[in-house]
Amino acid sequence: MREREDEWTGLMRRAISGDSAAYHRLLKSVTPVLRAAARRGLARAGQPVDQSEDIVQDILLAVHLKRHTWKTDAPFTPWLLAIARNKLIDALRRRGRRSFVNIDDFAEMIPSEPVAETAPASEVAAQLQSLPARQREVLQSIAVDSASIRDTATRFSMSEGAVRVALHRGLARLTAKLREQ
Amino acid sequence: METDQLIRTLAADNTQRTRPVGFMLALALVAAAPVSILMFFMTLGIRPDVMIAMRNPFFDLKFAVTLALAIAAIVVSLHLSRPEALLRGWALLLLVPAGILAIGIGGEMMVPQRLPMMARLVGHNSRVCMLAITLFSLPLLAGALVGLRHGAPVRPAVTGAIAGLLSAGLAATLYASHCTDDSPLFVATWYGIATALVAAIGALAGSRVLRF
To answer: Do domains A2-95 and A121-180 have the same CATH topology?
Structure first.
């Protein structure tokens, strides 16, 4: 428990200083915990738990776009859980249920129990269609076709800088759309 | 999109840096301030006897109160833009301007005054005061909200209200240089009402635009 928190904090520090591999590992490592928490929150609110994946993706996007609000001398876990709780409350509210999210949903942080079935996330994919063409193409190229920034730049005859900007704007816009829906 | 695909995409975007919220707030306020300042000079302007007024400690006290409010609200709003932040002791910072004002009221009570208390409280310009502070604070409030949108406040309405205090503090600093009512009683009443109004507007706006 303690060890994992230290590991996360270390990975996030490296991520902030530009280590994308550490960032990738961190996001992979937090995802099962977020998934378990989202399922518990949904269950408590009397909602079908198989919708957890949309919430997980929503949290991951918020973590990504707000990571500059994390102070590198602070532990990572309280910050992460605050973002996750906020997103879960938001998701439950959008599903038409005023509900209080128990802090214990996150405090326990037991990794995801083996899950029977989880519906694939659909909201991000759906909102992707509403992005401007260039942002959508770049996002799809990197997310779905697993292309690198450089390959994507070559494919669309763009500079790598332009790909990076389109990618970042696309993610920000996607997040805004998810919030508005 | 699969979650693994999303994670890979986010990692690919790791090189994009976002500036700290404090920087964005400062930038937004610097951009908004000229609008309020222009509004102030086009409508009211500094009072003509300002050089003499500056020798009156109760005139100077107004600036101590309004600036203390603005600074405390900036500090608290930046604190609240972190998601894991708890308000707790930080809210006490906002008592600093109230404390200065209370000391001022006490001080005024001890000095013999030409006007009775109610006359000092009612003053000459209460309506202009409330209207001016509220109007001059709106561009600053918009700026503050734009800046704070870069943060991740989990209490958007509270954070919006603090942004309201911040902008009211700055707008009141402008207005104080025009206002000839220097009694701390006047400040507590009419500046106070205007500040509460702007805080309410901020809370309302914040609950919409500061969600993330």
So the answer is: no
* pTM for the model: 0.89
User: What's the pLDDT score for residue A104?
Assistant: 57
Architecture of domain A121-180: Orthogonal Bundle (1.10)
Q: Which residues of B touch A86 (CB under 8 A)?
A: 83, 152, 154, 212
Q: Say if the Cβ atoms of A144 and B12 lie within 8 Å.
A: no
- pLDDT for A122-140, tens place per residue? 888 888 889 999 999 999 9
Q: B11 vs A21: CB contact, 8 Å cut-off?
A: yes
The CATH code that applies to domain A2-95 is 1.10.1740.10
| Domain assignments of chain A as residue spans, ordered by start | 2-95, 121-180
Secondary structure of chain B in HEC code, one letter for each residue:
CCHHHHHHHHHHCCCCCCCCHHHHHHHHHHHHHHHHHHHHHHHCCCCCCHHHHCCCHHHHHHHHHHHHHHHHHHHHHHHHCCCCCCCHHHHHHHHHHHHHHHHHHHHHHHCCCCCCHHHHHHCCCHHHHHHHHHHHHHHHHHHHHHHHCCCCCCCHHHHHHHHHHHHHHHHHHHHHCCCCCCCHHHHHHHHHHHHHHHHHHHHHHHHHHCCC
